[in-house]
């Protein structure tokens, strides 16, 4: 079988919402985590321990789709922004290319398109995300780059917009809706080679995506 | 006149050795610094204030060669490694491309070829240098990438080797010799589209380069 989906960052804030959705949807999945104990078990999900800061090429075996939703998080230093968000992503793309992956879904960020337009404190992170996205685009691996607004932990509504809202107060989106968008892109294998902005909105995710 | 050499990082540890050499060699030079007071005046050197973290495209006017020897230095945080060593270099390359620069001399670092082979503490810096070099190589701007060993402040000997010494104790090079190598690459307009390792050695710089 060569049609599994690899989720890198399975125990992260988006990953832990996405993995049960993939299980429920019956999508064969390999969930990569640094520490198995941090992820609940689900039917149809193979949990594999691996570390983005080390060699992890083995986890790509038998996978034709990849989701990168790993992030160093706000509580770590900028060394992890370099090592995980930027270099970890670059390494994942290199492995995806090597393994002939057919779709690489990158969870990027609002503002990654133009890091210098962002607030000073966010710039290192936005540079990391920008260059991770750039590496994916240049790799030739078919990509879906998602750029969600400010992430929130409220329940998802199942509705989004892919147009950047004018008011900065509206430039946010529940993590649960981002996970639903990822699921939808995997189901449809689309859109490919596009960058999609995601914000809370009025359009049903199934209509907005693909 | 469109044959000036732009030095980005003129008041840095290598830049402040290079600028007087360029003056002495009669090479028309634009020395970019954040703060004019930090650089001695020399005949034939135009000093221009600009900041790598802001817009600096104007300093490229009339320049056909560029030297990037700016560095955030060991006393700043990793935010500056992102903003100066990585993003500043990327911006400089973009401007060089826009202005049709004929040679971009990048002062990179030993270990930038394979950041993960370096010591853990150095990895963020080596990733920044790796991706700065990669951006230059991919830009299409004719490049000379110099990867010096551990930099020292002893007087230059005028002699180097471009082969990595086996003993780690020998993997160093005086900054003054690096500046002499830069001068030589500019004089010859060569080598182009090559990565050159530089360590203390036995070969005269004029013979080793170009």
UniProtKB/TrEMBL annotation, chains A, B:
Superkingdom assignment: Bacteria
Coiled coil spans: none
Native source organism of the sequence: Allohahella marinimesophila
Domain NAD(P)-binding: 9-187
Listed name of the protein: SDR family oxidoreductase
